[in-house]
Amino acid sequence: MCKLPLHHAVLALLTEGESHGYELKGRFEEAIGPQWGGLNIGHLYQILDRQVRDGRVTRSQVAQPDRPDKTLYRLTAAGHEEVRQWATSAWVRTGGFRDELFLKLFGASVLGADALDAFVDAQRQTYLSELAGLSRLRRTHTGDPLISLLLDAAIAHTKADLVLVEGAVERLAPLAEPNPGRSAAGGPRTHSGELHETPREASG
Known about the structure:
Helix 1 (7-14) crosses helix 4, helix 5 packs antiparallel against helix 6 (113-139) and helix 6 (113-139) runs antiparallel to helix 7 (145-166). The longest helix has 27 residues, at 113-139. This protein has helices spanning 7-14, 21-32, 41-53, 77-88, 100-111, 113-139, 145-166, 168-171, 173-176, 199-203, and strands spanning 57-64, 67-75. Strands 1-2 form a two-stranded antiparallel ribbon. The protein contains ten helices and two strands; from the N terminus they run H-H-H-E-E-H-H-H-H-H-H-H.
């Protein structure tokens, strides 16, 4: 489940008319496509409860003869205005680029050139496999403009990451160089290059 706030997308779905929870879940997953993932129904109801509380959505009960009453949600005028302002304003990145890729590049580089080479090779193969899968998926969604646009974005992002990773060995070479102040096992060295003995080693 993505941690991005989804309430505006739920409001956008309600601009098409009143709906109940499971219908909204299905419409969201159909509209956004396979790259986003499923929408947790419990989280969706939390969103709807908050929007009702904030006056952007109303709810009503519809009796059903052979099953529990159905709760329908409808957008209010305030909800229409909220989603209009959100949908027509520019998106600004606020969380920085907190990508584990960069943490892995850091970890591999401080372990040395061999570790960095191994990580880059493994990541390259992963990206190439992802691109092949995304390309196959893209060919099966040519009739859906929004999903095909999302897949194009995923392909472009993966290609950019591939280029970045392929240049990482050269660009991070200074970080991957051996540190003369450390031994291969990580122990401190003397100025002459010999390992210090610990008190226990000296007494043994």
